[in-house]
């Protein structure tokens, strides 16, 4: 039996220990905010935060996170008012929106580690997250805004 | 009114009769709210357009009926139906906003409800071709005006005053003479008893009184849900007892399953079943390719199970498709005469007598859409009824195709449209919904079919591959006197009909025969090309290769004559005029030519606007270059200036992009800017990396590591969008697609300015490193 804390709630799993965390979240725990985009840690749509670090849940097995604390987009802030989320809305970042949960989690992890990232640091930290609609200019602006106070 | 001349209009007319019979109950039930507009009288007219569009000629036409699109609840909430699909353009916000504007509804009291697929009820729902605003600006205004008029009439009756003395203002009707006011909610029940006014007599708001339209201060309705993970996309639907499936499909288009061994797959924990999926022979429009489905309790188990399948395929006739060999064939064909699709003057003779002939051979490979959400659909089929939840651009078409595939009446199929995690034309093809329907029927349980990224790239409906060859003949003064453009590419029509070897009119009309330059001798030709994979619409479609070739050639002419790119471009565009190409029944994005002609005055103006705002001719650092391109597509006019920097190792960066767009009358400039910013990224992606290639009939790319797209660290540092203020009564035109085509040629012209290297073959790849 694998136990893992997700958004503050303890969850358990006695199936395949190799199951990617992404599919546990989406199909077993019903947390569909975390998205499937590539399955190979190439696009960042599945990004969650584990112990203050941005992690690609599509290549992380449920077994690897046993006993650890996972935060998904649903758990980032109870009202959805994390500074990153607020900045995202203020800048009108999304187009289709599908990649944005992963983008927001990546940006939130960046700001936990580095509260005032430079232009280059933002671009470097966010380069693992693809947006096919091409919202990059706004993503960068929103991370700046979140880091300077919304 | 005579509907008989056009059978599609006839269908639309019959549909209207049906709408009249809809009972009060069903309308309220349909909208899922209490209270509302419910009217006895029919709304017949839908022809009173201030300008004509092609909307009425789309399958099922347009429905202008407030009873279908608007409901007012007694507590005041106004519900407005969005009948087009949201894939990132903002249409789910923009269309209801138009209704709210004209109705004088307060946007903060408006709720948007997504329509299910039902074109009889809602009119055409195909969200493609950059058509939504251009076809629906006026109908949505009319719907809002009709609703407002009914509320005003109800208030006037209540107060016993003439309707001309009352006015709807921000969710209330006001009688200013007496100072009386009634909220929309208080009037809902009475307004429902009013007859729907004739469209012809409706008084539309004066645009100077607009509160929302053209302002750009309204965020998309799904913004909060998107930032909190609550927004529901195709794969987020959960039904009791739902199974998770992935499918192994034939790796070669037209291939078939020879045999399979499910044993290892069935041993994977969580896998419940392995079953064959019916496939249709190629080409068969959007019908599934067939293969083997793995059914599991979660998607991870299904994927692992699929990896364990032993499969033997018969690749069939396309097993020899090889992109290297095929490119040679296309280029050979482009060097020989082909089907002449536009002829003015005598291009052959003029090229022979020209002082100088410049030849450009351009190549643009297959592209995959790779929307961030791969195709996915949920189906629940019970007996002869089917319910679908899917991110589809064509809810009405999906309903038709599900009904046909299952052999059940269309009325028994419900298609619920989720948000689309990107579309770009891929989700105009509903094959994934058909797969889910077939599996659910056989399983007797709800099922979700999830495509992986590899599936998306291997088994999609790719953008065509094309060779574009242009010969430009110049006289001794450097004036272009002859133009021959041969375009060779497999057609989208090949996905619908075997044996297709020529482009369809709608493809020829995307940048080939509608070429706007003022040249005396023109020949546009379309040599034959047979398809060996499924070809489909990709954002901007044939405009991508055509604008790439035509606008790169402008740069080549500028270089050959030693003139400025922009001046060369304006000289080629020529005098301000309406272009009338010598093409029989030229396709004009489905729009009547009188409303949407090729107007070179507008084309010149976007060039001048971008040159002014983008500071054309500015000094740039060493290793940098500026390039310009303009292209009319989806009846909009777009010009782009790209500044590129190429370092000594050939590494390319884009410090600045400026794009000017003239899309006529517009609704939401903030979303226009986001579309154009995104188009620069997609243009840069296809220019730098975009290519899908085949070997032994199979796609060689798999995922985002070998089908790359631009990431944030390569994005332009600044993208400025300059929106042309609309002229009086300029009809609205497309926004979603036209931003892409001019980007790549503007970049190539910039690279040439920076390095002296002319890139004629996409993607750029390592060409600058040499």
Describe the secondary-structure layout.
The complex is a heterodimer of chains A (150) and B (770).
Chain A: E1 2-6, E2 9-13, H1 21-28, E3 47-50, E4 53-56, E5 69-71, H2 83-90, H3 100-113, H4 119-125, H5 136-148
Parallel strand pairs in A: 1-5
Antiparallel strand pairs in A: 1-2, 3-4, 3-5
Chain B: H1 7-21, H2 24-31, H3 66-69, E1 70-72, E2 78-82, H4 91-103, E3 110-114, H5 119-122, H6 132-159, E4 166-169, E5 172-175, E6 180-183, H7 184-193, H8 223-228, E7 243-248, E8 256-261, H9 263-266, E9 271-277, E10 291-296, H10 299-307, E11 310-314, H11 323-334, E12 339-344, H12 347-353, E13 356-364, E14 376-382, E15 385-390, H13 395-406, E16 413-417, H14 431-443, E17 447-450, H15 453-458, E18 466-474, E19 480-488, H16 505-508, E20 521-526, H17 543-561, H18 565-573, E21 578-579, E22 598-599, H19 600-613, E23 624-633, E24 636-646, E25 652-662, H20 669-688, E26 694-695, E27 698-699, E28 718-723, H21 743-755
Parallel strand pairs in B: 2-3, 7-17, 15-16, 19-20, 25-28
Antiparallel strand pairs in B: 1-2, 4-5, 5-6, 7-10, 8-11, 9-10, 12-20, 13-18, 14-15, 14-17, 18-19, 21-22, 23-24, 24-25, 26-27
Main attributes of the structure:
heterodimer; A: 150 residues; B: 770 residues; alpha+beta; 7-stranded mixed β-sheet; 5-stranded mixed β-sheet; 21 helices; globular; disordered N terminus
Q: List the uncertain runs of chain A.
A: none
C-alpha-based Rg of chain A, rounded: 15 Å
SS-based class of chain B: alpha+beta
Oligomer: heterodimer
What spatial form of chain B do the alpha-carbon principal axes imply?
globular
* Spatial arrangement of strands, main beta sheet of chain A: 2-1-5-3-4
How many β-strands of chain B, per DSSP?
A: 28
Helical residues, percent of chain A = 25-40%
Through-space gap between termini of chain A: 42 Å
Which strand order do you get reading across the main beta sheet of chain B? Answer: 9-10-7-17-14-15-16
Tell me the overall shape of chain A.
globular
Distance between the termini of chain B: 66 Å
Largest interface, by Cβ-Cβ below 8 angstroms: which chains and how many residues each? A-B, 61 and 67 residues
Helix segment tally of chain A: 5
Sheet with the most strands of chain B? 7 strands, mixed
- Main sheet summary of chain A: 5 strands, mixed
Number of helices of chain B: 21
Mean pLDDT of chain A: 97
Strand-residue fraction of chain A?
Answer: 5-15%
